[in-house]
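Q: Here's a chain of 332 amino acids. Please give me its 3D structure as C-alpha coordinates.
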Amino acid sequence: MRNETTANQPILEVISLEKKFPVYGSFGKWFGTKSYVNAVTDVSFRLYKGETYGLVGESGSGKSTTGRTILGLTPATSGQVLYEDKDLAKLTRNELRKFRKDIQFVFQDPFSSLNPRKRIGPILEEPLLIHKMGDQKQRQEQVFRILEIVGLQPEHYFRYPHEFSGGQRQRVGLARALIMNPKIIVCDEPVSALDVSIQSQILNILKELQKELQLTLLFITHDISVVRYISDRIGIMYLGTIVEEALTDDLFNEPLHPYTKALFSAVPDFTRNRLSERVILKGEIPSPLSPPSGCVFHTRCPYATDICKAEVPGLKEVRPNQRVACHLISAH
Protein backbone atom coordinates (compact mmCIF):
# COMPACT_ATOMS: atom_id res chain seq x y z
CA MET A 1 0.00 0.00 0.00
CA ARG A 2 1.03 3.56 -0.57
CA ASN A 3 1.71 5.62 2.54
CA GLU A 4 1.44 9.07 1.06
CA THR A 5 -0.38 10.95 -1.67
CA THR A 6 1.64 11.15 -4.85
CA ALA A 7 2.59 14.49 -6.29
CA ASN A 8 1.76 13.50 -9.88
CA GLN A 9 -1.43 14.30 -11.72
CA PRO A 10 -4.52 12.32 -10.64
CA ILE A 11 -5.77 9.61 -12.95
CA LEU A 12 -9.35 10.73 -12.19
CA GLU A 13 -10.67 13.86 -10.49
CA VAL A 14 -14.18 14.46 -9.18
CA ILE A 15 -15.07 18.14 -8.77
CA SER A 16 -18.23 19.42 -7.01
CA LEU A 17 -20.25 16.37 -8.05
CA GLU A 18 -23.96 16.64 -7.39
CA LYS A 19 -26.84 14.26 -7.98
CA LYS A 20 -30.50 15.02 -7.30
CA PHE A 21 -33.33 12.58 -7.92
CA PRO A 22 -36.75 14.09 -8.71
CA VAL A 23 -39.68 13.07 -6.53
CA TYR A 24 -43.12 13.23 -8.13
CA GLY A 25 -46.57 13.47 -6.63
CA SER A 26 -49.40 10.95 -6.76
CA PHE A 27 -50.02 11.62 -10.46
CA GLY A 28 -46.43 11.08 -11.55
CA LYS A 29 -44.75 13.45 -13.99
CA TRP A 30 -48.00 14.95 -15.23
CA PHE A 31 -47.99 17.69 -12.59
CA GLY A 32 -44.24 18.25 -12.47
CA THR A 33 -41.60 17.65 -9.85
CA LYS A 34 -42.74 17.77 -6.25
CA SER A 35 -39.26 17.85 -4.68
CA TYR A 36 -35.75 16.43 -4.99
CA VAL A 37 -33.69 13.86 -3.10
CA ASN A 38 -30.24 15.35 -2.55
CA ALA A 39 -28.27 12.11 -2.90
CA VAL A 40 -24.82 13.65 -3.56
CA THR A 41 -23.86 17.25 -2.78
CA ASP A 42 -20.58 18.99 -3.68
CA VAL A 43 -18.37 15.88 -3.57
CA SER A 44 -14.74 16.38 -4.64
CA PHE A 45 -11.78 14.01 -4.47
CA ARG A 46 -8.90 12.67 -6.56
CA LEU A 47 -7.76 9.18 -7.49
CA TYR A 48 -4.07 8.53 -8.13
CA LYS A 49 -2.69 5.67 -10.20
CA GLY A 50 -2.18 2.45 -8.27
CA GLU A 51 -3.94 3.51 -5.06
CA THR A 52 -7.12 2.42 -3.32
CA TYR A 53 -9.46 5.20 -2.23
CA GLY A 54 -12.04 4.04 0.30
CA LEU A 55 -15.44 5.73 0.47
CA VAL A 56 -17.17 5.02 3.78
CA GLY A 57 -20.51 5.97 5.30
CA GLU A 58 -23.85 4.82 6.63
CA SER A 59 -26.54 3.41 4.37
CA GLY A 60 -28.09 6.34 2.53
CA SER A 61 -24.97 8.50 2.74
CA GLY A 62 -24.68 8.65 -1.06
CA LYS A 63 -21.49 6.62 -1.50
CA SER A 64 -22.97 4.12 -4.00
CA THR A 65 -24.67 6.90 -5.95
CA THR A 66 -21.30 8.68 -6.14
CA GLY A 67 -19.71 5.59 -7.69
CA ARG A 68 -22.52 5.07 -10.19
CA THR A 69 -22.52 8.75 -11.14
CA ILE A 70 -18.77 8.72 -11.80
CA LEU A 71 -19.27 5.91 -14.32
CA GLY A 72 -22.29 7.57 -15.93
CA LEU A 73 -24.62 4.75 -14.86
CA THR A 74 -26.56 7.55 -13.17
CA PRO A 75 -26.34 10.96 -14.92
CA ALA A 76 -24.83 13.73 -12.81
CA THR A 77 -26.98 16.77 -11.99
CA SER A 78 -23.88 18.98 -11.98
CA GLY A 79 -20.15 18.83 -11.39
CA GLN A 80 -17.21 17.33 -13.25
CA VAL A 81 -15.59 13.91 -13.55
CA LEU A 82 -12.25 14.50 -15.27
CA TYR A 83 -10.45 11.59 -16.96
CA GLU A 84 -7.83 11.97 -19.70
CA ASP A 85 -8.71 15.64 -20.18
CA LYS A 86 -12.36 14.75 -20.71
CA ASP A 87 -15.32 15.56 -18.47
CA LEU A 88 -17.16 12.23 -18.34
CA ALA A 89 -20.19 13.89 -16.76
CA LYS A 90 -20.77 15.92 -19.94
CA LEU A 91 -20.38 13.12 -22.49
CA THR A 92 -23.27 11.47 -24.31
CA ARG A 93 -23.83 7.73 -23.95
CA ASN A 94 -22.11 7.03 -27.27
CA GLU A 95 -19.15 9.25 -26.36
CA LEU A 96 -18.88 7.62 -22.95
CA ARG A 97 -18.76 4.11 -24.40
CA LYS A 98 -15.11 4.28 -25.48
CA PHE A 99 -14.10 5.12 -21.89
CA ARG A 100 -16.01 2.15 -20.44
CA LYS A 101 -13.12 -0.22 -21.04
CA ASP A 102 -10.86 1.94 -18.83
CA ILE A 103 -13.29 2.34 -15.91
CA GLN A 104 -15.20 -0.74 -14.79
CA PHE A 105 -17.69 -1.51 -11.99
CA VAL A 106 -18.01 -4.40 -9.52
CA PHE A 107 -21.57 -4.60 -8.22
CA GLN A 108 -22.64 -5.37 -4.67
CA ASP A 109 -24.95 -8.20 -5.76
CA PRO A 110 -23.32 -10.05 -8.67
CA PHE A 111 -26.24 -12.47 -9.03
CA SER A 112 -28.73 -9.74 -9.95
CA SER A 113 -26.23 -8.26 -12.42
CA LEU A 114 -25.63 -11.56 -14.27
CA ASN A 115 -28.01 -12.78 -16.98
CA PRO A 116 -29.51 -16.01 -15.55
CA ARG A 117 -30.16 -17.36 -19.07
CA LYS A 118 -26.52 -17.15 -20.16
CA ARG A 119 -23.51 -19.24 -19.26
CA ILE A 120 -20.59 -17.45 -17.62
CA GLY A 121 -18.36 -17.73 -20.69
CA PRO A 122 -20.62 -15.72 -23.04
CA ILE A 123 -21.35 -13.22 -20.23
CA LEU A 124 -17.63 -12.48 -19.86
CA GLU A 125 -17.10 -12.39 -23.64
CA GLU A 126 -19.87 -9.85 -24.21
CA PRO A 127 -17.80 -6.70 -23.41
CA LEU A 128 -15.07 -7.90 -25.77
CA LEU A 129 -17.67 -8.45 -28.46
CA ILE A 130 -19.23 -5.01 -27.95
CA HIS A 131 -15.83 -3.31 -28.24
CA LYS A 132 -14.87 -5.56 -31.20
CA MET A 133 -11.78 -6.94 -29.50
CA GLY A 134 -10.34 -10.10 -31.06
CA ASP A 135 -12.00 -13.03 -32.84
CA GLN A 136 -14.03 -15.75 -31.16
CA LYS A 137 -11.00 -17.90 -30.28
CA GLN A 138 -9.08 -14.94 -28.85
CA ARG A 139 -12.08 -13.85 -26.77
CA GLN A 140 -12.50 -17.35 -25.37
CA GLU A 141 -8.79 -17.57 -24.50
CA GLN A 142 -9.03 -14.19 -22.72
CA VAL A 143 -11.98 -15.44 -20.65
CA PHE A 144 -10.12 -18.60 -19.61
CA ARG A 145 -7.14 -16.46 -18.59
CA ILE A 146 -9.27 -14.11 -16.48
CA LEU A 147 -11.09 -17.03 -14.82
CA GLU A 148 -7.73 -18.41 -13.73
CA ILE A 149 -6.60 -15.01 -12.42
CA VAL A 150 -9.63 -14.69 -10.12
CA GLY A 151 -9.30 -18.26 -8.83
CA LEU A 152 -11.94 -20.05 -10.91
CA GLN A 153 -11.58 -23.18 -13.03
CA PRO A 154 -11.93 -23.59 -16.84
CA GLU A 155 -15.10 -25.68 -16.38
CA HIS A 156 -16.79 -22.65 -14.79
CA TYR A 157 -16.91 -21.17 -18.29
CA PHE A 158 -19.85 -23.47 -19.10
CA ARG A 159 -21.89 -22.95 -15.91
CA TYR A 160 -24.90 -20.71 -15.27
CA PRO A 161 -24.90 -18.01 -12.53
CA HIS A 162 -27.21 -20.03 -10.23
CA GLU A 163 -24.65 -22.86 -10.12
CA PHE A 164 -22.12 -20.67 -8.27
CA SER A 165 -21.77 -19.85 -4.59
CA GLY A 166 -21.85 -16.22 -3.44
CA GLY A 167 -18.07 -15.99 -3.31
CA GLN A 168 -17.70 -17.57 -6.75
CA ARG A 169 -20.25 -15.16 -8.22
CA GLN A 170 -18.30 -12.23 -6.82
CA ARG A 171 -15.19 -13.65 -8.50
CA VAL A 172 -17.17 -13.71 -11.74
CA GLY A 173 -18.12 -10.07 -11.17
CA LEU A 174 -14.47 -9.24 -10.64
CA ALA A 175 -13.53 -11.20 -13.78
CA ARG A 176 -16.09 -9.23 -15.78
CA ALA A 177 -14.54 -5.97 -14.59
CA LEU A 178 -11.01 -7.19 -15.43
CA ILE A 179 -11.80 -8.60 -18.87
CA MET A 180 -11.31 -5.18 -20.52
CA ASN A 181 -7.92 -4.55 -18.85
CA PRO A 182 -9.22 -1.41 -17.10
CA LYS A 183 -7.20 1.28 -15.39
CA ILE A 184 -9.82 2.04 -12.72
CA ILE A 185 -12.31 -0.26 -10.97
CA VAL A 186 -15.18 1.04 -8.83
CA CYS A 187 -16.07 -1.61 -6.24
CA ASP A 188 -19.50 -1.07 -4.68
CA GLU A 189 -19.73 -3.06 -1.42
CA PRO A 190 -18.12 -6.07 -3.15
CA VAL A 191 -17.76 -8.20 0.01
CA SER A 192 -20.64 -7.04 2.21
CA ALA A 193 -22.83 -10.09 1.47
CA LEU A 194 -20.04 -12.66 1.90
CA ASP A 195 -18.81 -14.72 4.84
CA VAL A 196 -15.74 -13.34 6.60
CA SER A 197 -13.45 -16.05 5.23
CA ILE A 198 -14.65 -15.40 1.68
CA GLN A 199 -14.32 -11.65 2.22
CA SER A 200 -10.62 -12.04 2.98
CA GLN A 201 -10.12 -14.12 -0.18
CA ILE A 202 -11.75 -11.50 -2.41
CA LEU A 203 -9.87 -8.65 -0.73
CA ASN A 204 -6.54 -10.46 -1.13
CA ILE A 205 -7.28 -11.09 -4.82
CA LEU A 206 -8.00 -7.39 -5.27
CA LYS A 207 -4.76 -6.40 -3.57
CA GLU A 208 -2.70 -8.86 -5.60
CA LEU A 209 -4.28 -7.78 -8.88
CA GLN A 210 -3.84 -4.13 -8.01
CA LYS A 211 -0.13 -4.64 -7.44
CA GLU A 212 0.30 -6.80 -10.54
CA LEU A 213 -1.78 -4.69 -12.95
CA GLN A 214 -1.29 -1.23 -11.35
CA LEU A 215 -5.03 -0.86 -10.93
CA THR A 216 -6.65 2.13 -9.27
CA LEU A 217 -9.56 1.22 -7.01
CA LEU A 218 -12.48 3.25 -5.66
CA PHE A 219 -13.66 0.98 -2.85
CA ILE A 220 -17.14 1.75 -1.49
CA THR A 221 -18.14 0.15 1.81
CA HIS A 222 -19.70 0.68 5.23
CA ASP A 223 -17.30 -1.76 6.94
CA ILE A 224 -14.57 0.05 8.90
CA SER A 225 -12.30 -2.99 9.21
CA VAL A 226 -12.51 -3.77 5.49
CA VAL A 227 -11.74 -0.23 4.38
CA ARG A 228 -8.83 -0.03 6.81
CA TYR A 229 -7.33 -3.22 5.40
CA ILE A 230 -7.52 -2.33 1.72
CA SER A 231 -7.40 1.48 1.44
CA ASP A 232 -4.52 3.93 1.06
CA ARG A 233 -6.76 6.97 1.55
CA ILE A 234 -10.28 7.23 2.92
CA GLY A 235 -13.16 9.64 2.43
CA ILE A 236 -15.92 9.67 5.08
CA MET A 237 -19.40 10.48 3.71
CA TYR A 238 -22.43 11.74 5.59
CA LEU A 239 -25.75 12.69 3.96
CA GLY A 240 -24.26 13.06 0.48
CA THR A 241 -21.10 15.01 1.39
CA ILE A 242 -17.52 14.14 2.30
CA VAL A 243 -16.86 15.34 5.85
CA GLU A 244 -13.29 14.05 6.24
CA GLU A 245 -10.52 12.70 4.02
CA ALA A 246 -7.07 11.45 5.02
CA LEU A 247 -4.42 8.80 4.55
CA THR A 248 -5.59 5.58 6.18
CA ASP A 249 -2.97 5.53 8.94
CA ASP A 250 -3.53 9.21 9.77
CA LEU A 251 -7.29 8.80 9.90
CA PHE A 252 -7.17 5.81 12.22
CA ASN A 253 -4.46 7.28 14.41
CA GLU A 254 -6.35 10.53 14.98
CA PRO A 255 -9.80 11.06 13.44
CA LEU A 256 -10.85 14.70 13.63
CA HIS A 257 -14.46 15.08 12.50
CA PRO A 258 -17.11 14.20 15.13
CA TYR A 259 -18.89 11.91 12.67
CA THR A 260 -15.68 9.99 11.93
CA LYS A 261 -15.16 9.56 15.68
CA ALA A 262 -18.74 8.31 16.01
CA LEU A 263 -18.20 5.73 13.27
CA PHE A 264 -15.03 4.50 14.92
CA SER A 265 -16.80 4.43 18.30
CA ALA A 266 -18.97 1.64 16.93
CA VAL A 267 -15.87 -0.60 16.75
CA PRO A 268 -15.23 -1.75 20.37
CA ASP A 269 -11.53 -2.60 20.04
CA PHE A 270 -10.82 0.63 18.21
CA THR A 271 -12.68 2.70 20.80
CA ARG A 272 -10.79 1.17 23.69
CA ASN A 273 -7.35 1.62 22.18
CA ARG A 274 -7.50 4.79 20.08
CA LEU A 275 -10.23 7.25 21.02
CA SER A 276 -9.93 9.43 24.12
CA GLU A 277 -13.71 9.62 24.36
CA ARG A 278 -16.58 7.72 22.87
CA VAL A 279 -18.95 9.67 20.62
CA ILE A 280 -22.53 8.36 20.65
CA LEU A 281 -24.93 9.87 18.14
CA LYS A 282 -28.53 10.66 19.02
CA GLY A 283 -31.45 10.70 16.64
CA GLU A 284 -31.70 9.48 13.05
CA ILE A 285 -29.89 10.60 9.93
CA PRO A 286 -31.93 13.45 8.38
CA SER A 287 -33.91 12.91 5.20
CA PRO A 288 -32.08 13.84 1.96
CA LEU A 289 -35.42 15.30 0.83
CA SER A 290 -34.89 18.18 3.25
CA PRO A 291 -31.27 18.22 4.48
CA PRO A 292 -30.41 20.53 7.40
CA SER A 293 -29.11 24.03 6.77
CA GLY A 294 -25.46 24.76 7.43
CA CYS A 295 -23.45 21.68 8.35
CA VAL A 296 -25.54 18.62 7.50
CA PHE A 297 -24.24 16.88 10.63
CA HIS A 298 -25.16 19.60 13.12
CA THR A 299 -28.52 17.99 14.08
CA ARG A 300 -26.65 15.01 15.57
CA CYS A 301 -23.32 16.58 16.51
CA PRO A 302 -22.70 16.89 20.28
CA TYR A 303 -20.41 19.89 19.71
CA ALA A 304 -22.59 21.94 17.31
CA THR A 305 -22.71 25.73 17.72
CA ASP A 306 -24.72 28.50 16.06
CA ILE A 307 -22.30 28.80 13.12
CA CYS A 308 -22.75 25.10 12.39
CA LYS A 309 -26.49 25.69 11.91
CA ALA A 310 -26.01 28.70 9.64
CA GLU A 311 -22.98 28.10 7.40
CA VAL A 312 -21.88 25.14 5.30
CA PRO A 313 -18.28 24.22 6.25
CA GLY A 314 -15.84 23.78 3.39
CA LEU A 315 -13.61 20.72 3.14
CA LYS A 316 -10.32 22.36 4.15
CA GLU A 317 -6.85 20.91 4.68
CA VAL A 318 -6.02 21.04 8.38
CA ARG A 319 -2.97 18.78 8.17
CA PRO A 320 -0.86 17.46 5.29
CA ASN A 321 -3.11 15.14 3.26
CA GLN A 322 -5.99 15.46 5.77
CA ARG A 323 -9.09 17.50 4.95
CA VAL A 324 -12.04 18.11 7.29
CA ALA A 325 -15.38 19.88 6.83
CA CYS A 326 -15.96 21.27 10.31
CA HIS A 327 -16.16 24.84 11.67
CA LEU A 328 -14.69 23.73 15.00
CA ILE A 329 -11.45 22.28 13.62
CA SER A 330 -8.64 24.58 12.51
CA ALA A 331 -5.29 23.85 10.87
CA HIS A 332 -2.72 22.32 13.20
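Q: Can you summarize the key feature?
A: The longest strand covers residues 28-47.
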